[in-house]
Design goal:
EC number: 2.7.4.9
Largest sheet: 5 strands, parallel
GO molecular function, one term: dTMP kinase activity
Order of helices and strands: EHEHHEHHEHHEH
CATH architecture: 3-Layer(aba) Sandwich
Keywords: ATP-binding, Kinase, Nucleotide biosynthesis, Nucleotide-binding, Transferase
Structural class: alpha/beta
GO biological process, one term: dTTP biosynthetic process
CATH class: Alpha Beta
Oligomer: single chain
Strand content: 5-15%
Number of strands: 5
CATH topology: Rossmann fold
InterPro entries: P-loop_NTPase (IPR027417), Thymidylate_kin-like_dom (IPR039430), Thymidylate_kin_CS (IPR018095), Thymidylate_kinase (IPR018094)
Number of domains: 1
Bound molecules: ligand Z5A, magnesium ion
Length: about 220
């Protein structure tokens, strides 16, 4: 019997929504209970030369023009696109902490008139498309109560409020909504984890039963 392809599973949400916590738990769970290898990625990947430029920008130690930093975030995903595709073709499931949805909404939240959501999404077209995006939903105030936002460039309340609104716009868009499962991230860690596991089980079954190939991000 041919090996089943791996799945592309993405976590998204506001800062402090619990993405990294749930990503790590899902990776562990799939390694112990799944029948495939699991690769764990996060964006931005701060280890590459482009990722280091992004890191310096987020830390405030360098400046970048808005479009330039947007394209660097996107390039940082393209750097790994082939790695993701090869892993999935070889039967490895890839779990990703933030992906192109973050890329679109954080840049659009800057309110630069020539950087709207549609413009921001354009460089992402053609990237491997998630089989499921788990959107960890929490309001900005409750998220901030989890130890504060930190000191990086976008970690400000008004920016986070706009990001939440834009995530909402993306989630209901005709070409995105089928991939996205909204999880109530205000619950305790174990309850959220159970919801994540169930949503992932359904998504895996849907891909396997239809023998669905890995898709690419399409234009709106
Ligand atoms: N960005 C961008 O502009 N463009 C792009 O293309 C991409 C990103 C990919 C860095 O992201 C910034 O880059 C980010 C978006 C922008 N800017 N901002 N602002 P990052 O992913 O590196 O950010 P981070 O440092 O990992 O923080 P985070 O992702 O915001 O946090 P999180 O991963 O969602 O949360 P967590 O670390 O899992 O949990 C936070 C705390 O809450 C921790 O103490 C947990 O123990 C606790 N926690 C978690 N779950 C719960 C529950 N259920 N109950 C109670 N407490 C909880
Ligand atoms: Mg995180």
């Amino acid at each position: 019997m041919a090996t089943k392809r791996g799945k592309l599973i993405v976590f998204e949400g506001l800062d402090r929504s619990g993405k990294s916590t749930q990503c790590a738990r899902l990776v562990e769970y799939l390694r112990q209970n799944g029948s495939t290898d699991v690769k764990h990625l996060r964006f931005p990947d701060r280890t590459t030369p482009i990722g280091q430029m992004i890191n310096n920008y987020l830390a405030g130690s360098s400046q970048q023009e808005d479009h330039v930093i947007h394209l660097l975030f996107s390039a940082n995903r393209w750097e790994l696109a082939q790695t993701i595709e090869s892993a999935i073709a070889g039967g490895t499931t890839v779990v990703v902490d933030r992906y192109y949805y973050s890329g679109c909404v954080y840049s659009a939240a800057k309110q630069n008139p020539s950087l709207d959501l549609a413009w921001c999404r354009h460089p992402e077209i053609g990237l491997p498309r998630p089989d499921i995006c788990l959107f960890l939903d929490i309001n900005a105030e409750d998220a901030a109560n989890r130890g504060g936002y930190g000191n990086e460039r976008y970690e400000k309340q008004d920016m986070q409020d706009r990001v939440r609104g834009l995530f909402g716009e993306m989630r209901i868009h005709e070409d995105e909504k089928d991939d996205i499962v909204v999880i109530d991230a205000g619950k305790d860690i174990e309850t959220v984890e159970k919801c994540v596991q169930e949503a992932v089980r359904v998504a895996i079954e849907r891909v396997d039963s239809g023998d669905r190939p890995l898709r690419r991000v399409q234009p709106w």
